[in-house]
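Problem statement: downstream parser choked on a complex file, so we are re-checking the raw output for the nicotinamide-adenine-dinucleotide run. The parser issue turned out to be on our end (a line-ending mismatch), but while we're here, posting the original submission so the record is complete.
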Amino acid sequence: MTRYPEILPVIDGTHHWLVTGAGGFIGSHLTEALLSLGQKVTGLDNFSTGYPENISLAVEASGHGENFSFIERDITDPQACREVMRGIDYVLHHAAFVSVPASMNDPSGCFASNASGFMNILEAARINGVKRVVYASSSAVYGDNETMPKIEAETGRSLSPYAMTKYINELCAEFYTRVYGLECAGLRYFNVFGVRQDPNGAYAAVIPRWIDAVTSGKTPIIYGDGTQSRDFCAVQNVVKANILAALSPSSPGKVFNIGCGVETSLNELLGKIYAVFAPERKPEALHEKPREGDILHSSASTEYAREVLKYEPAVYLEEGLRIMQEVMTQ
Ligand SMILES: NC(=O)c1ccc[n+]([C@@H]2O[C@H](COP(=O)([O-])OP(=O)(O)OC[C@H]3O[C@@H](n4cnc5c(N)ncnc54)[C@H](O)[C@@H]3O)[C@@H](O)[C@H]2O)c1
């Protein structure tokens, strides 16, 4: 039902992939998709925000558990990174301190995983002769730049420690590609959604939070008037982009926006969530005051990814929500 592997590029031969953050939302989808394509996968996670259950669900859905191994380690441990990288062809680096608001309260914790931990990944990959590192950057690097749609070359001043670390990642990756010859490619994700995204916690993303609310009879909360807009990107597109970035001859040293290039307001999103998950309910929301630091609009120009990676989104918002609904009611 997640539509793997039919929407994915063909991978020639069998390679050994390391997925860091495999217990998380995106990492578990990468694991599922690669296994379903007959690839060998090692997952790494410290389960700070991820769950062992995400891994078991992904491995089970792929039908190829025999090609999977897992190591519970922390990327802040350089030795662990070096050990796990032995014999790895491709790294899809997704382990990170992921919460923007939490990074405001704990910048050092954020830098430990996202800056030092990222360095450990690059260094281990260089020492072990990894073919390529694809890493998760973020639309957060656009910071206070209000240009729309977001174009790769036009970033802004950081609005959080999280955003700073993602920008630092891009600088480090470009350096490792240019100076050490370790091929790296960065993907600036916009608002990714799909099953296995955590609906709980103070910093949960809007889609899982609202689905949880509408399916349990509660009223979703909108911070502000709901006219803010985002580029909601189904996780299937992110998986596709990772494989393209890992295999494209032209991606090293570059960074790409990965979204759908479609702006949807929160009010529109809420209507679509009600329509798919609770068609019997009349859409309603509680409005609270806007959250500090929230940007008003964000959507990706996907032109560069289309041109260089041949990336085309395969699943748009409504279909992505329907896929989630089908998987959740299985
Ligand atoms: N979900 C989005 O919309 C989005 C948008 C932009 C960027 N990203 C980036 O994509 C990546 C994956 O995000 P996600 O949404 O799947 O989040 P997630 O929290 O579900 O996954 C992150 C995983 O990394 C693990 N982890 C965290 N710190 C670690 C450490 N020090 N050592 C080992 N494992 C560690 C966590 O336990 C978790 O399983 C992150 O780098 C995030 O910054 C996500």
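For whoever reads this later: The pocket of nicotinamide-adenine-dinucleotide is lined by residues 21, 23-27, 45-50, 74-76, 94-98, 113, 117, 136, 138, 189, 191-192 (CB under 6 Å).
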